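Moderator note: this is an archived Q&A kept for reference. The question asked for a predicted structure of one protein chain; the sequence and the answer are reproduced below.
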Amino acid sequence: MRLRLVFTRISFLVALIAPSAGSVFAQAPLEPTQLPSRTIFYLLWCGTPTGEVRKTNSLMSLWDDPDFAPVRTALANAMMSDAKSQKEKSSLSREELANFATLLDNPFTIGYIPREGAAPKPATPNAKPPAWNGMFLVYDRSGKEELLSKAVLRMRAGGEDIPTLTDITVAGVKALKVERKSGTNYWAETGKYAVSATEPAVFEEVLKRVTGKATGSSLAELAVYREAKPLLSGGLVEFFLRVPQIKDIAGDADSTSPYLKMLWSSIHLEALHVFAGHISLDGTRTRLLGAVLGDTTEGTLFDIWSAGQKQPQSFVYVTPATIYYNESQFDLQGIYNTLKRALAQPGSNTATLVTSVENSVETRIGMTLPDAFALTSGEFGTLQSSPALQNDKKVYFLGIRNKPDALKLMRTIFSDKLTSEHNEGDITYLKISLKGNQDAKGVAQWNFYHLAMTPNLLLGASKTETLQTAIAQATSSGAASLPKSLQVARSQFPDMLNGFSYFDLQKVDWPALQQQWAAQAAKAATSAKSNDDERKAKQWKELLLNVNPAVFPRHLHSITGASWKDATGVHFDEWVD
């Protein structure tokens, strides 16, 4: 259920940004200008915004609404419901959890710094070099000193073994070395900041950066950071990842297998320079803006994304009755070429397998894979016009070219699964059996799915009436009937898009949706194969029945998003209003 996934994400986003209303946006403890130049990843949290912003922003006002209390409680229970953790002496009560959650009032920076230089040689020839964990945390503890100390003590008491604590001095700062069977961690509190890391070299370097004692270049001086800088300013949350350096996190270069090195090279990972973006608040709306930036020339991972178009073929099926519409465009030939480069490497076992699978598929469909891909436009999507978001009212679509050849391919692929076919004008209706068996009397088929092939789209639905209704609406109204709200949403993005989505939350029948999901949860609880699955299904049902469905349309109006590809990379822009 896509909406359930959407609101799960929304709830956790709100849980992150709205634990209390006591602070304002603040500077992060460690800015990019302070991070060492070899930093691979960082995330900045600027602290909980002001109470006025909470009243204005739709997500925050939803979180604070008394009718949303069952969801807040459910999230807290979910964090405490694991049976094993309940038995541990360190398990938190709901009150303690709520209290510790206010630590998010303050800013923090987390990041990853790779090893500097080559890994030390192992003690024996067959031993692996020591593992490296370059993660670090810098937290602004202003006003939270006592609460932070309590939280740290609880975490240390929660392990399976009693840690060994050793007082040390690092970079002129008194610190604590915490040793467990599972590993070692370092912790220091200096001025208004708390610093934590696993590697002593990272811990020392971060402490020097925090106290202003460090020398050398910073991340902000690098070209890759300057490339991403327009995506990073003005946010509540800011994230930055140097994509090619992922392989440095994956393992030491000396110990990496030749096949893995060949894989990195074959997919041209270096062409993806950086993944960056931020989350910001804009009045009632919450925005997620980001991009994967790099070299978009042919032969790189950017090949999987289509160049996009101004108005996709599926737009004609969007009417004033449409509640949810999602459309994406991919380059199927580009995806195929990328996978083949990655898997069919000379001399590897997968090269033979790829060739065998490729030959088998081409024999089965009666044409080469490039010819088959050429019959599709790469446009995929979903359209929903049921206020209760009923699955049998959902329509899926795939863009096609050359209908006669595409129809021939469909007949070949489904062969004995195709139970009927007829034409109505320039539309061909197909009935596909998804399940069947054969006995002495012949083949019994059931669980049918319905397809309709137009000159430029293949549409699918679980009911033929759903297809006929969508086609009739498109034929009678056309693109001129696009909802004004959707037209406005579309106009805020570039002309050429390879992805667009729109969800009108005001049109949802929330009470009907609540009852539908509760019935599904009850069914899931009855058919659960384990006690844990049954418990989770019952918790979900209880939450659904206790929350007031009117709380959602009271605060939420729409979710809009788009993606596009240009000479600099692939961009995405998502809005929740």
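Archived answer notes: The chain has 20 helices and 20 strands.
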